[in-house]
Amino acid sequence: MDQFVNRLIQGGQTTIPNYLIDNYAKIGMNANELVIYLQFKRFFDRGVMAPDIEQISSATNINDNEIYQILHNLIQKKLMTIETKQDWDGKDFDQYNFDLMYEKLSELSASDPDYQPVSGMNGTNDANHRQTESMSVNGRQHVFVSIEREFGRELSPIELETISGWLDQSHYSPELIELALREAVLNQVYNLKYIDRILINWEKKNIRTADGVERELNRYQGHSRRQAPINDDDGPEIPIFKIK
Predict the structure, then answer these.
(1) Does residue 149 register a pLDDT over 60?
(2) Which residues form the DnaB/C C-terminal domain (predicted)?
(3) 91 within domain boundaries
């Protein structure tokens, strides 16, 4: 059992939007094409942008020729593109890009404003769950909207997945992410890597709520009155602003 748990931990996790799982058929994908995308996403999350087709074949039990045919179908359906890039040695390699798939999902979302995630509850519990879920969804949406507004542009698919990972895998609250965003804006740094450093730094200090940030702020200010602040932490400092 310990070995199994270790393998689960070492293998990491792959974040997949439920909206894709719910609607892949509506944008023209079939089950095999979704499986191949999931395999590519697994590699992308590990920083491998040009996955080995043989490894994907081994994981899916789909032979190489079938995988290439599936990729060809995805290109024809305008769900994927293949871009030629160069590595540090100047050698060309193929990079698989699924931005078109997310664009189709975005178009589908715009045409279906009444979409509701699948729910398995009924009765009063279902009503309470929907109310709680609605508050959670609103907070989640506000995070994406706030970051796009502060960055002054639309977020890329990779950035959208990074933010989803904060919410779904790291379980950072929307409020905490927005506080980290505010700190980044105060420092005029407009990228997710900086926000991620802030969140990780807070997590190291066991700060996962707005109240926790407030307490750290009070502690920091009290300490600053006694002596000049010393910061030997590689991560960003706790934001110096009053939380409303």
Answers:
(1) yes
(2) 146-216
(3) yes
Q: Is residue 242 part of a domain?
A: no
What range does the domain containing 174 cover? 129-226
Among candidates 169, 228, 232, which has minimal Cα distance to 196?
169
- Distance (Å, whole) CA 199 – CA 209: 11
Long-range contacts of range 218-225, CB-CB < 8 Å, 24 or more positions apart? Answer: none
* Chain segment 108-118, per-residue pLDDT in tens: 988 887 777 66
Kind and range of the H or E element at 184?
Answer: helix 174-186
Query: 3-state class of 96 per DSSP?
Result: strand
Distance of alpha carbon 4 from alpha carbon 78, whole angstroms: 39
Q: Are 74 and 80 in contact (CB under 8 A)?
A: yes
Mean pLDDT of the chain: 80
Q: So what's the pLDDT on residue 120? A: 54
DSSP sequence for 18-79 = HHHHHHGGGGT--HHHHHHHHHHHHHHTTT-SS--HHHHHHHHT--HHHHHHHHHHHHHTTS
Q: Do residues 184 and 213 lie in contact, with contact meaning Cβ atoms separated by under 8 Å?
A: no
pLDDT at 183 over 70: yes
Rounded Cα gap, residues 244 and 210, in angstroms: 10
Number of independent structural domains in the chain: 2
With contact defined as beta carbons under 8 Å apart, do 213 and 207 qualify? yes
Residue 142 lies in a domain: yes
CATH no. for residue 204? 1.10.10.630
> Rounded CA gap, 103 and 37, in Å?
15
> Does residue 10 lie in a domain region?
yes
The percent of residues above 90 in pLDDT, for the chain, comes to 34
